[in-house]
């Protein structure tokens, strides 16, 4: 896996380089700002990028803007965004642009090497990884969509873990239920949200985006 890192904090940037190389991954370039990141992506054509949300010069949304721009140039690029704080709007906006090969993690997750590497590989393999803290804050809010109100408490639990990007087996282990039960709950979620099997969009992704977006608006 060839990786470009965009992070303005020198200590974290070098720590990421050491961690990823120790895991046998190829860090082909690092950048301190959004422009340098886009230049590195154009030059090296990486498989995956790790990008800070807030970067110079304003330290607002430069990283997110650059990540979206990179995906527009290279639709197959895997993007893992890092943030110091929970910024729910950034998480849902990033996913709304297309959810495959995308991840959003808090920076504190980097120190939990197994979790960070699992998220990185999941994103690189075409999946989605949303930080559990982001999901937990959304779960704590009231959901305004009437169809989401139809879900049972267990179905809400399943959808919350789905929002982290986990597959059925991992959901079963997290909730201590059988994989068959997870499959049954997901089918029920799709039915209650009106997501037909022949929908052109991925039903799993659509359910998660609706869940995150409606919780954020609340």
TrEMBL record:
Positions bearing 4-aspartylphosphate: 52
GO biological process annotation, one example: regulation of DNA-templated transcription
Gene3D superfamilies to which the protein is assigned, alphabetical: 3.40.50.2300, Winged helix-like DNA-binding domain superfamily/Winged helix DNA-binding domain
Annotated keywords: DNA-binding, Phosphoprotein, Transcription, Transcription regulation
Pfam families attached to this UniProt entry: GerE, Response_reg
Domain HTH luxR-type: 144-215
Annotated ranges, domain Response regulatory: 2-122
CDD domains in UniProt: LuxR_C_like, REC_NarL-like
MF terms (GO), sorted A to Z: DNA binding
Alphabetical list of InterPro entries matching this protein: CheY-like_superfamily, NreC/VraR/RcsB-like_REC, Sig_transdc_resp-reg_C-effctor, Sig_transdc_resp-reg_receiver, Tscrpt_reg_LuxR_C, WalR-like, WH-like_DNA-bd_sf
Entry superkingdom: Bacteria
SUPFAM superfamilies hit by this protein: C-terminal effector domain of the bipartite response regulators (SSF46894), CheY-like (SSF52172)
PANTHER family on file: TRANSCRIPTIONAL REGULATORY PROTEIN NARL-RELATED, TWO-COMPONENT RESPONSE REGULATOR
Protein name, as recorded: Response regulator transcription factor
């Amino acid at each position: 896996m060839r990786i470009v890192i965009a992070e303005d904090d020198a200590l974290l940037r070098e720590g990421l380089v050491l961690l990823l190389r120790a895991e046998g991954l190829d860090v082909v370039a690092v950048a301190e700002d959004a422009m340098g990141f886009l230049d590195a992506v154009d030059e090296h054509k990486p498989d995956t990028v790790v990008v800070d949300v807030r970067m110079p010069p304003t330290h607002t949304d430069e990283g997110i803007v650059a990540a979206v721009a990179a995906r527009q140039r290279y639709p197959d690029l895997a993007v893992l965004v890092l943030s110091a704080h929970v910024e729910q709007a950034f998480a849902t906006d990033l996913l709304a642009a297309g959810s495959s090969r995308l991840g959003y993690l808090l920076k504190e997750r980097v120190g939990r090497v197994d979790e960070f590497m699992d998220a990185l590989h999941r994103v690189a393999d075409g999946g989605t990884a949303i930080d559990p803290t982001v999901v937990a804050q959304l779960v704590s809010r009231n959901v305004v969509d009437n169809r989401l109100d139809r879900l049972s408490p267990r179905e809400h639990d399943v959808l919350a873990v789905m929002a982290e990007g986990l597959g059925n087996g991992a959901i079963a282990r997290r909730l201590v239920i059988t994989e068959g039960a997870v499959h049954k709950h997901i089918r029920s979620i799709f039915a209650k949200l009106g997501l037909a099997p022949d929908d052109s969009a991925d039903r799993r992704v659509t359910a998660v985006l609706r869940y995150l977006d409606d919780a954020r608006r609340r």
